[in-house]
Amino acid sequence: MGNDVDVEAVVTAVKQSTKYGDTSEATIRELAEEAVRQHKKSKPAIKAVRARLHSIMAPYLGDPDYSAEAARLEAAFAAHDNAAIEAICQDCLYAHLSTRERLPILAEFYERIFAITGRPQSILDIACGLNPLALRWMGLHSYHASRITYHGLRFHAYDIHEPRIAFINHYFRLEGLPELAKVQDVAMDIPQEEAEIALFLKEMPRFERNYGGRGRPLLESLRAKFLVISYPTISTHGGRNLTNRYREFMFQLIQGHDWPVTELLFDGELVFIVEKRLGD
Questions:
Q1: Rounded Cα–Cα distance for residues 226 and 278 (Å)
Q2: Angle at 200 (CA atoms; ends 34, 86), nearest 5 degrees
Q3: Alpha helix segments (H runs only) across 18-157
Q4: Distance between CA atoms of 41 and 4, rounded to whole angstroms?
Q5: CA distances (Å), 122 to each of 151, 199, 224, in order?
C-alpha cells in the first residue's frame, strides 16, 4: 500500500499549531518531506515534525513577550532614554537562557573578541536567538549630540523564529540600522552575505545534533574574515564541565583547514576565533 501522507497537509497542520506556527515555513517543509518518507500516516508524520522542531527551536530556553517589549522599546527610544533602552535590552537577553548566561560578562566578552578581530563594520549573527539585543555592549557605537550612532554598521541576523526576527528588525529600526534580520534556516540556506565577522554562539552542538554533518559545510561556506564560534563550558543539566569535549569537537570540525585559531575562555563560555579570511 502506497504512502497516503501529503506534504502540504503536514506543513499546514504544523503551521496552524500554536506552538510551532511561527517557525520558518521552509524549515517545516524540509522536515515534513523527511517525515512523509518515513511515515505512512499523517498523524505520525505531524508528530515527527513537531518533535524535530522541539529540538531545533528549543522553546524551553525561553522568549520574552515580543509585543510588550517592542512597545517598551518604542517608548524608551521616543524619550531618548538610553538607560531605559539598555535595561529593556537586558530584560530581553535575560529571557533566553543562552544570552542570560552571558549577561555577567557581556561587555568583556565582545571587548576581548574585538581586540583580536578588530571592531567590525559588518556582522553575520548565525542562528542569532536574541544576541542582536547585545549590540550596545559591543562597543561599535559613538555619541553624536548625545545620540548613539553606528557609522554604517551592517548587522545581518538569521533565525527561524518569525516573531523573534520581526522584533529584532524593530529594534534595528529604532537604533537607526538597516533591517537586516531574516527568517532563514542556515542549515538549508547558508547566508551569502559577506562580513568581517560571523558569530555562531553556543549553537554548534545543537546544530550538529539536529542537522548532522552540516556544521563543517556551514563554516566552510560562510563568507567572513573571522568566525567566532562559542560553546558552553558547563552542561545545562548536571553541571558537567564540557571544555575539553568541545575543544576537541571544534578542532575536528575544522580539521584540514589552515585557519589560525585563537581560544578565549570566559566564565561559562569557550570561544574560538577562527581567522578564515574572505574567499577561503
A1: 8
A2: 120
A3: 25-38, 42-57, 66-78, 82-95, 97-102, 106-117
A4: 7
A5: 11, 11, 9
Q: Is 227 helix (H, G, I), strand (E, B) or coil?
A: strand
Dihedral, CA of residue 104, residue 109, residue 111 and residue 112, to nearest 10: 130
The C-alpha cell of 133 is what?
539585543
Ordered structural domains, the chain, with CATH: 7-57 (1.10.8), 100-275 (3.40.50.150)
Query: What distance in Å separates the CA atoms of residue 218 and residue 231, rounded to the nearest whole number?
Result: 16
Phi, psi of 49 (to 5 degrees): -65, -45
Q: What is the Cα–Cα distance from 78 to 158, expressed in whole angstroms?
A: 27
pLDDT in tens, 153-202: 999 999 999 999 999 999 999 999 999 999 999 999 999 999 999 999 99
Q: What single-letter amino acid sits at 10?
A: V
Query: Do residues 140 and 119 lie in contact, with contact meaning Cβ atoms separated by under 8 Å?
Result: yes
- The predicted pLDDT at position 279 comes to 63
**Global pTM?**
0.89
